[in-house]
């Protein structure tokens, strides 16, 4: 599978709009989880494999290569770490994570309670 690049066709966008290329990349298994986890600091391949639980070494290698090629992570003496762009991306995603947990996810509970009350 090719690495999503702005300007090239990606999932959901024949024109390769930058946001669609980014969402295509982050939508791949464990890509966003790796970015999320590395915000806490550098981690080794083994540490990331433990964090990702069921990920195969091949898939983890692929995701790490994709994220490196897209300038979101880098290899350091301590392991893998976010680049400046990776840190900025996390800081943009983190509020969305809070919204998803505290607002959106609760709407499912609220809607189910309404349905059960009928």
What's the CATH C level of the domain at 18-88?
Mainly Alpha
Which segments are poorly predicted (pLDDT under 50) over 5 or more consecutive residues? none
Number of helices: 5
Question: Helix/strand-derived class?
Answer: mainly alpha
Pfam family, one: HxlR
Keywords: DNA-binding, Transcription, Transcription regulation
Protein name: Winged helix-turn-helix transcriptional regulator
InterPro entries: HTH_HxlR, WH-like_DNA-bd_sf, WH_DNA-bd_sf
In words, what does this structure look like?
This protein is mainly α and 118 residues long. The protein has a domain of 71 residues: Winged helix-like DNA-binding domain superfamily/Winged helix DNA-binding domain (Arc Repressor Mutant, subunit A, Orthogonal Bundle), CATH 1.10.10.10. It contains 5 helices and 2 strands; from the N terminus they run H-H-H-H-E-E-H. Strand 1 and strand 2 form a beta hairpin. The model has no long low-confidence stretch (mean pLDDT 91).
